[in-house]
Each structure stands twice: as structure tokens, then as C-alpha cells.
Amino acid sequence: MKKNIFFTVVFILFLQSSGMAKQSGLWVVRYALVNPSQRNAIIEKAIQLGVTDLYIQVWALGRSWVQTGHDNRPDEPALTGKMLVEFIEEAQHQGLKVHAWINVFYVWSGSNPPEYKNHVFNRYQSEILRTDTGAELNAYNVLKKDGVTGYFINPQSSAYIRQIKKYVKDLLIKFDFDGIHFDYFRYPGRQYSRAQHVSSNPIVGYFVDDKKIYQSYQPFIQQFGMDTFLHIDNYYSTYLREIVNNAFRELSQSIRTHNASTVISAAVKPDIYQARHKYFQDWSLWIQENWCDHVLMMNYTLDTKQFRNRLNSAKQYVPADKITVGVSVYNQPPLQALRKIKLIRASDFKGYSIFSLNYLQEHAEYFKAMRQHLNGKNRSYLSEYINNGAAR
């Protein structure tokens, strides 16, 4: 086994040095890190899959999963600093790059609030986004009914941004991460875009309440006309995008100032139009302004036509070599995933990233199929495998 790993690593390094290699990433959800038996297998499995970059989740649900002194509870599992140092050293020794994956604005999930009083959700409760300024938080079942993942914190919260900035700086000081990877850097949608004591502000000049406009837009259109509604809607959307952009720029500049060589990436919505207009995630601007080195486009659709259309749309606004394409394994058989990876390899995109290692660890046959056709020894068989439709 060690001999096979050695030759695979040499193969990856050769490709990287010769300019032939595309990035092949792998997202690692926090549970694999805090579970000793799973953590020990992460690097070996990554090498077997021909991976070049690991995105390991260190901040999620409003707290650190590494013992850094940032919102850790003593009774909850977390990776010790020593364990993380050793993990990064071993991964880099094997030729892998390691990125710290941070879920930024999505801070809590569940009907009951966290018991820990210093948790972000409790400490910044007035900053948790809701449908109505001044109102109580929406119930969790209402959020889920509305298609929202969970509770998001206001991207305009200067106190929370400062906390994340300090957390990232501490990560870069204490650990030799190759990159910082932001996720959930967006609003959950226009409906949930208000904090308790924050005015909607941009529409004050119109002497109207944006909430009333969107909840009762037909009467508003009848009274003021469609052009007025569209103008106000565009004004409010621009305002929300600027808030997210300002937060991303602030964190990016902080990272660049501390260590200019740190790679900054972001997991983003795959439909570039929907990302910008529904979630106010203007990731093409992040690339254009060099706040972000590349994005990981979460293109998890099963529909191959839609998969291609999203890629083609993105290329109109962002250079393809700035886009790593996310490929899911949890919702499609190996054959489907491998076909998409083959498509990416034949394109001018930066590469692909698989979501996630955790699923592959839990599904041995799926991992076996991917391993046989993704690592350096078996790549020549990928086309034959796909053409024969061997994976099920």
C-alpha cells in the first residue's frame, strides 16, 4: 500500500511540475476530522483518488472545530492544535495542499438554540437574519418550509466580521494552511435579509418600506407602476450585494496583508445569474477585483445539459482557469460523476473538486469505483470505463 501511495504522489508531483495537471480537490466535512479513525484515513484516501487539494472544514455552525479558543465548548468534539499541525504536515509531505474551509454566514441549524451562551447565535441574536425588522426570529420549521438551510447572520455585522477576521488570522499564524476557503458567503435570499435593529435603509429615500413592497407587491405596482417597482427592487438588490462584497473585500485584504501567498477561494452558487440576483453573491466581481484567487462552483445538478449550461454561462464572465467545478457524489452514481469529471478534464477549467470525502468513506463500493478511475495509475482507463457504462 505504501509503495502504491508513493508512486501516486510522484505521478501527481510530475504532472504539477510539467503544467499538465488540473486541480483535483476534495471537500472534507468536519466530522471526519474529529473522528480519529476517519481522520487517519483522509490523506491515504485522498492520494488514492489522485487529489491535489484538501478543503477541510474548520468553522461551521457558528463555531470552530479546532481548539483555537474561538467558541469551543469543552464538551464538544474538536481537533486539537497539535493534531491539526501533524495532519497538515503529513498531507503536505505527501504533496497535498490544505485549505481551511470556513462556513461564514450560516451559523446555526435546528429548532433549539445552542446551549452554549457564547455561541455566535446567542451572542449576536439581534443580528440573525429574519423576514421582518424588529420581529422575533422565524421558527426553524418556517425557514425550512421557505427553502432556507438554517439561520444566517447579517453580513453587515461588523462585530462578527471582526471575529472571523481574527479567527482567520489565528489560523494562519498557528497552522501552515495553503489557503483559506470561504463558504456560505451570501444571503439566504431577499426574504431573509433583515436583522432586528437594522433598517432596510436604501429605500428610505423613497419613503416606503421594502418589506411591504415585497409582501404586497401587486397593490404597490397598481399604485406606482411596474417601472417604479423594478427600479426599487434593483436598488435594494444592489445594496445587498454591496454588503456582501464589502465583507469579502475586508476579509480578503486582511489575509493578503498577513500573507500574500495564501490562496483565497470560495464555494459559490453554480448559476452565476442566480448567485448574483437571488443570493447577492457577486462572485465574478470577487475574481475581477482579485479578492479571490479562484472559486469552487458547486455544480451538483444531475442534469448533464444544465451542468454544461452553467459552465458556459460562467465562462462568459469569469476566466475558466479561475473556476474549479464542484462535482457531487451523494446524489448520483459513479458513472454520472465520472462523466462530469471527464468533461472538466477535457476543458479549460481549473479543475474539479469532489463533494465529499465523508460520503465516499461511508460508501465503500462508490469509493472503490472512483479510486480505480481517478488516480494516476488508472486514468488511462477512465474513458473506456465511461464508454462501457461499467459504473452503477
User: From the coordinates shown, what is the CATH architecture?
Assistant: Alpha-Beta Barrel
Neighbour order of strands in the largest sheet: 1-2-4-7-8-9-10-11
Corresponding CATH superfamily? Glycosidases
Mean pLDDT: 87
Number of strands: 11
H/E series: HEHHEEHEEHHEHEHHHEHHEHEHEHHH
Q: Fraction of residues in helices? A: 40-55%
Q: Class in CATH?
A: Alpha Beta
Descriptors for this entry?
392 residues; alpha/beta; TIM Barrel; 8-stranded parallel β-barrel; two-stranded antiparallel ribbon; 17 helices
How is this structure best summarized?
The chain has 392 residues and is α/β, with parallel strands linked by helices. The chain has helices at residues 2-18, 30-34, 36-48, 81-93, 120-123, 140-145, 158-174, 210-215, 217-224, 226-258, 272-277, 283-288, 304-315, 334-345, 357-362, 364-374, 382-388; strands at residues 23-28, 53-60, 63-64, 97-103, 106-108, 151-152, 179-183, 263-268, 294-298, 323-328, 351-355. It has a single domain (22-388), classed as Alpha-Beta Barrel (TIM Barrel), CATH 3.20.20.
Walkthrough of the structure:
- There is one protein chain.
- It is built from 17 helices and 11 strands.
- It is α/β, with parallel strands linked by helices and 392 residues long.
- It has one domain (22-388): Glycosidases (TIM Barrel, Alpha-Beta Barrel).
- Strands 1-2-4-7-8-9-10-11 form an 8-stranded parallel β-barrel.
- Helix 7 (158-174) runs parallel beside helix 10 and helix 14 (334-345) packs across helix 17.
Task: Produce the secondary structure layout.
Blueprint: H1 2-18, E1 23-28, H2 30-34, H3 36-48, E2 53-60, E3 63-64, H4 81-93, E4 97-103, E5 106-108, H5 120-123, H6 140-145, E6 151-152, H7 158-174, E7 179-183, H8 210-215, H9 217-224, H10 226-258, E8 263-268, H11 272-277, H12 283-288, E9 294-298, H13 304-315, E10 323-328, H14 334-345, E11 351-355, H15 357-362, H16 364-374, H17 382-388
Parallel strand pairs: 1-2, 1-11, 2-4, 4-7, 7-8, 8-9, 9-10, 10-11
Antiparallel strand pairs: 2-3, 5-6
Helix pairs in contact: 7-10, 9-10, 14-17
